[in-house]
Structure to design on (475 residues):
C-alpha cells in the first residue's frame, strides 16, 4: 500500500487508504461509546500492533505538518505544568495567563472521526499507541495531548514535597474532554479527588539518556521484553537496608506447620525454621497442577514462572497454595482437617513472606507471568529530531484494578497482609513495601524517588500493612 496515501486507522487498527471512509464508521453500532464504556476498559497493545509500527519505521519517516508545528521537544523542555493544588492558588490574571501559556504545549487532536494518523510520522505513531482500544465515541469526545509532571499518576501525590515537584520529568498524555481548565478526564484515570492518581493512561516521555545529567530528574524507564531480576533485587535490598523495622516481618513459629516448595530440588518440603520465602498470589481459573507436574517441570505456567522468579531473586523457597496445601478432591477426614488447619494459617503465610508475588496478568494459572518465560511487548520508541521518545505503560494500579485477579474474593486479604508486594502485570512490574509512598515504589516504568516514605511525610508508624496516622496528618 502506498504510504503517502494511507492512514493508520484508530478504529480498525490497521493501514487504510486515506481517501476512503473507515469501514467501522459505516456501522455506528460497531463503535462503543465513551458514555457506556468504562474508561478503564481498553484492550492491550499487542505484538501485532508493535510489528506494524516497526514495519513502518523501516520506511522514510518525517513529521507531518500538524506534528511539526506542535514541536514536541519544545513541550518537553519548556512546559511547566502545575498540578491541581498548585493551580488552585492561581487567581485572576495569573490563572488566565497560566492556561494561555500552557496552551502552546497542548496538541489538540479534534474529533477522532476526522483525526488522520499519518503512518510515516513518528509522533503520529506514538499517538496511535496512546489512543485507547477501542477509542471513545468518535463524534462526541475531543482529545488533546497534554503535558503533566508524572508524580500526579500516583495516589497520595500531594505528599510529594513542593521542593521536589519540578524534579519530575514532563510527560504527555491524552486528556478528554478538551477543556482548557483542570477538569478534563485522563484515560485510565482513577478519579479527580485530590489524593487520587490522575493521567494514569499510557504516556510518552523523553528517553532517560535525553535528560541532562547536570540536574537531578525523575523520569521514565524503557520497558524491555524480559524482566530484569537484578533491578527487582536492588529494590528489595534498598528496602531491607532502609526499612528494617517497618518492612521486615519476623518469622512466626506457626509456619513450621506449613509446607514450602524448594525451588532448587523442585520438591515440597516441611517449612524450615526461620524460612526466607516468597508467596504467590494468582488466579487459578480452573487449571489444576497434575500429579508429578512439579518434578516434571510441567506446572501451570504462572507457577513455573514464579519458581523461575524465586530463583532469579536468589531465594530457595516458594509458597503456592495449589502445591503446599493438599488439594485432594475427595479427602479423608484427616486430610480435610489438615487442609482446614493450613487455611487457618494463610494470614501468617502472606504476612511473613519476604515478598508476595502478585501475578496479575491473565485469567488462568496457565497464562504465565509476562516477561519471565515469554517476552512482553516493549516500549514503543521513535526518534524525532535526533531525540528518542518512548511510551510509558499505564500506571500499574490502573492495570491491577481492571484484572481478573482483582475480582477474586480474597485478593484484599493477601494484599493487606503482605509486607512487600511485587505486582507483575501485562506490561510492567512494581515492588511496593509498607514504608514507601507511590512515587517511591520501586518501579520498572519510572525512576523511584528516594526517601519519600510514610514516616518521612507524616511521622506515622507502619505495622502489618496499615499506616497508623490521624486523618489530620494526611490532609
Amino acid at each position: 500500500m502506498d504510504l503517502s496515501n494511507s492512514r493508520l486507522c484508530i478504529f480498525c487498527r490497521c493501514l487504510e487508504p486515506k481517501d476512503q471512509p473507515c469501514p467501522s464508521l459505516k456501522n455506528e453500532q460497531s463503535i462503543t461509546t465513551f458514555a457506556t464504556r468504562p474508561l478503564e476498559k481498553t484492550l492491550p497493545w499487542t505484538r501485532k500492533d508493535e510489528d506494524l509500527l516497526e514495519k513502518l519505521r523501516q520506511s522514510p519517516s518525517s513529521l507531518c505538518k500538524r506534528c511539526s508545528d506542535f514541536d514536541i521537544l519544545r513541550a518537553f523542555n519548556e512546559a511547566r505544568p502545575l498540578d491541581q493544588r498548585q493551580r488552585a492558588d492561581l487567581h485572576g490574571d495569573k490563572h488566565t495567563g497560566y492556561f494561555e501559556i500552557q496552551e502552546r504545549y497542548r496538541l489538540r487532536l479534534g474529533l477522532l472521526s476526522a483525526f488522520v494518523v499519518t503512518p510515516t510520522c513518528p509522533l503520529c505513531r506514538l499517538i496511535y499507541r496512546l489512543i485507547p482500544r477501542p477509542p471513545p465515541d468518535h463524534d462526541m469526545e475531543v482529545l488533546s495531548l497534554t503535558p503533566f509532571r508524572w508524580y500526579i499518576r500516583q495516589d497520595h501525590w500531594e505528599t510529594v514535597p513542593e521542593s521536589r515537584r519540578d524534579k519530575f520529568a514532563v510527560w504527555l498524555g491524552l486528556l478528554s474532554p478538551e477543556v482548557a481548565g483542570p477538569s478534563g478526564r485522563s484515560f485510565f484515570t482513577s478519579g479527580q479527588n485530590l489524593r487520587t492518581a490522575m493521567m494514569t493512561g499510557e504516556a510518552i516521555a523523553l528517553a532517560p539518556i535525553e535528560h541532562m545529567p547536570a540536574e537531578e530528574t525523575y523520569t521514565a524507564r524503557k520497558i524491555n521484553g524480559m524482566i530484569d531480576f537484578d533491578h527487582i533485587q536492588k529494590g528489595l535490598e534498598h528496602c531491607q537496608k532502609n526499612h528494617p523495622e517497618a518492612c521486615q516481618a519476623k518469622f512466626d513459629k506457626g509456619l513450621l506447620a506449613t509446607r514450602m516448595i524448594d525451588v532448587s530440588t523442585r520438591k515440597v518440603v516441611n517449612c524450615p525454621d526461620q524460612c526466607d520465602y516468597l508467596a504467590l498470589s494468582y488466579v487459578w481459573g480452573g487449571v489444576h497442577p497434575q500429579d508429578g507436574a512439579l518434578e516434571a517441570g510441567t506446572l501451570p505456567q504462572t507457577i513455573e514462572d514464579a519458581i523461575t522468579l524465586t530463583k532469579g531473586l536468589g531465594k530457595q523457597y516458594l509458597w503456592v497454595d495449589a502445591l503446599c496445601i493438599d488439594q485432594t478432591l475427595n479427602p479423608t477426614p484427616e486430610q480435610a482437617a489438615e487442609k482446614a488447619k493450613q487455611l487457618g494459617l494463610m494470614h501468617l503465610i502472606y504476612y511473613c513472606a519476604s515478598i508476595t508475588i502478585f501475578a496479575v496478568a491473565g485469567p488462568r494459572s496457565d497464562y504465565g507471568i509476562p516477561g519471565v518465560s515469554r517476552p512482553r511487548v516493549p516500549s514503543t520508541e521513535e526518534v524525532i529530531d535526533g531525540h528518542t521518545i518512548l511510551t510509558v505503560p499505564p500506571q500499574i494500579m490502573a492495570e491491577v484494578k481492571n484484572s481478573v485477579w482483582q475480582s477474586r474474593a480474597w485478593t484484599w486479604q493477601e494484599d493487606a497482609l503482605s509486607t512487600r508486594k511485587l505486582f507483575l502485570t501485562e506490561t510492567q512490574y512494581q515492588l511496593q513495601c509498607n514504608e514507601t509512598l507511590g512515587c517511591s515504589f520501586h518501579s520498572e516504568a519510572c525512576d523511584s524517588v528516594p526517601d519519600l516514605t510514610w514516616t518521612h511525610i507524616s511521622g506515622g508508624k507502619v505495622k502489618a500493612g496499615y499506616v497508623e496516622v490521624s486523618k489530620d496528618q494526611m490532609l
User: Anything to note?
Assistant: The longest helix spans residues 229-242. The radius of gyration is 24 Å. The chain has a mean pLDDT of 84.
